[in-house]
Write a structure and sequence with these properties.
D-Maltodextrin-Binding Protein, domain 2; plasmid; 41% helix; elongated; LysR-type_TF_proteobact-type; 3 domains; five-stranded mixed sheet; Arc Repressor Mutant, subunit A; LysR_HTH_N; transcription; DNA-binding transcription factor activity; 299 residues
Length: 299
């Protein structure tokens, strides 16, 4: 039995929840994948998956096996890369999660990466809140703000830039706020990220000013906030990636430019402390480069 291939098959079945889906990803037949997993269970003398006619589920032993299987597969991948550095090509699928504004920015540029690496594929997942990286089978995740989980590897690739904005039709009905204390008199549309949606932070050039707000509308997706503010629903803090085209076209106006929203670090996190597979490292370097190319995120 090729135990590494069997471990790969088990990981794909655990991630997809299906022998058929895993077979497609691995370019094998469904019976071949089933045989590999069964052989692995026989080798380990333990059941890793509960099988019924309609569903699959990990056993307790199967759940414990995932982290160990990942370490083995990553170590083998790293060994293969080290033995053929000059001829190595990024191949396989990378699952990447990131907030919607940055996801849209990245998706415009991904075809160029995939053209340069014909054997590479990327699955984009737009997600505002932190994932269970190992449990969800995520290779890389972009998180905004400080990363508190010390078990994860973290690479800072840039900084957010955002604007407080409103539609002209809203500002025709309400006075333009001049300072953060004036915001309490306004309708606020709030982007709630990881449970935080009741305060906005601004900078006066030296200090950070936090303002409590009572939003009438809260959404956990920045694109939804963007659409709502365009209709004149109120004030909103939007990423420059979403707001800049509308500001240039006059559909949105900057509010309180002397007090810009506080900037947050853009971090990429990943679960492995070992050498990253070439496919993952290629996408990570790509993310760092595309962020660096935007001067409002580079520093």
């Amino acid at each position: 039995m090729d135990i590494v291939s069997a471990l790969r098959a088990f990981l794909r079945v655990a991630e997809t929840g299906s022998f058929s889906a895993a077979a497609i990803d691995l370019d094998l037949t469904q019976p071949a994948v089933s045989r590999q997993v069964s052989a692995l269970e026989g080798h380990l003398n333990t059941r890793l998956l509960h099988r019924t006619t309609s569903a699959l589920a990990l056993t307790v032993e199967g759940e414990q096996m995932i982290a160990m299987a990942l370490r083995v597969v990553e170590a083998v991948d790293a060994l293969n890369e080290a033995s053929c550095v000059e001829t190595a090509m990024a191949s396989g699928r990378v699952r990447l999660t990131l907030p919607a504004p940055l996801g849209l920015y990245v998706s415009d540029r991904l075809p160029g990466l995939l053209e340069r690496h014909p054997a590479l594929s990327v699955e984009l997942i737009f997600r505002e809140e932190p994932s269970d990286l190992i449990g969800d089978g995520i290779d890389l995740e972009v998180r905004l703000g400080a990363v508190s989980d010390s078990t994860l590897m973290c690479r800072r690739i840039g900084w957010t830039t955002a604007f407080l904005v409103a539609a002209p039709c809203y500002l025709e009905r309400h006075s333009m706020p001049k300072a953060p204390d004036d915001i309490g008199d306004h309708q606020c549309i709030c982007y709630s990220r990881a449970g935080d949606g009741r305060s906005w932070s601004f900078s006066d050039g030296s200090d950070e000013i936090s303002v409590r707000i009572a939003p009438r509308l809260v959404a956990n997706n920045a694109v939804a906030v963007h659409r709502a503010v365009l209709t004149g629903g109120g004030l909103a803090v939007l990423s420059h990636l979403l707001a800049s085209p509308d500001i240039e076209a006059g559909r949105l106006m900057k509010v309180m430019p002397e007090f810009p929203p506080a900037r947050l670090p853009i971090n990429v996190v990943y679960p492995s402390r070992k050498s990253l597979p070439l496919r993952v490292r290629t996408v990570l370097d790509f993310l760092a480069q595309v962020v660096k190319e935007d001067p409002l995120m580079a520093s």
